Each structure stands twice: as structure tokens, then as C-alpha cells.
Amino acid sequence: MMDENDPALEAPVFDVWRCIGCGRIEAPQPCIGVCEDRKVQMVEYRDYVAVVSRLDDATDRIAALENALRRVTLTTPRAGEWERSYRALQEDARRAIAAAAATRPLQAAAPEAADGADP
After folding, report:
1. What is the pLDDT of residues 12-21, one digit of tens each?
2. pLDDT tens-digit map of 5-40
3. Does a cis peptide bond (omega within 30 degrees of 0) precede residue 28?
């Protein structure tokens, strides 16, 4: 889950004046002509692109993790094969977590179990 207080997600917002007729943008003073201005908020394009890119990455990670979880919930092992199925699902989940961690920018991966044993 992304931290909403992450400074990398905070893009500076600028109050500007945009004409509702012609679309002209000015800051910080309103036009004194015949145009009718409304105050709008804008962010710099590079900040917007950075946030959208991080959102796309997070969406991809969520999809991969949902797929691993879906396999856990939809798999019914054959009689006497529960342990083999469990181990295979564990390995799938580990791969999904590793792939998600590898694409996560500037954040530490989830801590491993202290004793290194399987749950």
C-alpha cells in the first residue's frame, strides 16, 4: 500500500487564473480585460507524469498479487496432495512478492520471517 504522506507523491499545486472563454492562463493576477476568469489548480506536468507512472506500477503489482491470491483461493488439492499443492502455491506467492518488490521504487521489501522458517 502506498503511503499517502510520501513526499514523492506530493506535487506542488499552483493556483492560477484561467479564462472560461478563451482558456488563457495567468498567475497570480486575474485578467482586467473582458474575460471572465475562474481560479483553478494545476500541477507541473513532470510531477503529474511521475505520479501516474507510480500509479501504473502499483496497479501492475496489485494485479500480480491478486493473481497469486486467486490461485490460492481457487485451488483444491487432490486427496493426499495438499502439501505439494501448498508448496507450489507458496512458491508462486514468493515469485509474485519478489516481482512486486523488484518494481517497487525506493521502498524496502517486506521483512522476511526472523527464523527463516515457513509458516
Report:
1. 777 777 777 7
2. 555 556 677 777 777 777 777 766 656 666 676 777
3. yes
Burial annotation 72-88 (CB, 10 A radius, 16+ → b, else e):
eeeeeeeeeeeeeeeee
d(CA 52, CA 102): 19
Backbone phi, then psi, for 109, in 5-degree steps? -70, 165
Bridge partners, 14 (sequence order): 42
Judge residue 41's burial from the number of C-beta atoms within 10 Å of its C-beta, 0-12 exposed, 13-18 middle, 19 or more buried. exposed
Count of Cβ atoms closer than 10 Å to residue 17 Cβ: 17
Q: Which three cell numbers stand for residue 60?
A: 501492475
